[in-house]
TrEMBL record:
Transmembrane segments: none annotated. It holds the Pfam family DUF924. This is DUF924 family protein. It comes from the Bacteria.
Length: 180
């Protein structure tokens, strides 16, 4: 499959969904993504981040493939975060090269998601900056909430059970802290 073919499949599928499906797709959507894209995800995850930086649309498709799709394909399992590092590497390089600026706002928002999903405070600060510059009132509050959680705890406590991490006393005292 050529770059143009897999890129078109990922982008057509993702952007044909409604925003509600992006965030609350459910088991049926998870299954559809797994059936349609698991093989592609497994194949492309073996490549270095630079492989996806030839143009803005390829970078965007890679970020969706490595950041969004695993959250559906592996919902409730640690594997949903297994390619976050690759998504972040693609996103960071795309932003550094200005590839994001060549995309419409809705698509740029997905280039910025890996920063928001990172458990690194510097990435969170960059997320808030990028979403602020984007000027999208829908995405910015979520970026700020993610930042607040990482600033407070240094990680996302709601991931602890999935990742096999013991909760710390401050996380237990805070209760169920989620960015949504």
């Amino acid at each position: 499959m050529t770059v143009e073919e897999w890129r078109a499949q990922v982008l057509k599928f993702w952007f044909s969904l409604s925003p509600d499906q992006w965030w609350n797709g459910g088991a049926d959507l998870d299954h559809r993504i797994r059936q349609s894209f698991l093989k592609l995800w497994a194949e492309k995850r073996q490549l270095p981040a630079d492989s996806f930086l030839t143009d803005p649309l390829t970078a965007l498709a890679a970020v969706i493939l490595f950041d969004q799709f695993p959250r559906n394909m592996f919902s409730g399992h640690a594997d949903q975060f297994s390619t976050d590092h690759l998504a972040l590497a693609v996103a960071a390089a795309a932003v550094d090269r200005g590839l994001d600026e060549q995309l419409p706002a809705k698509e740029r928002a997905f280039i910025y998601m890996p920063f928001e999903h990172s458990e690194d405070l510097a990435d969170q600060k960059r997320s808030v900056l990028l979403f602020t510059e984007l000027g999208d009132d829908e995405f910015l509050p979520f970026a700020k909430k993610h930042h607040e959680i990482i600033e407070r705890f240094g990680r996302f406590p709601h991931r602890n059970a999935i990742l096999g991490r013991a909760p710390r006393p401050d996380e237990i005292a805070a209760g169920d802290v989620k960015p949504w």
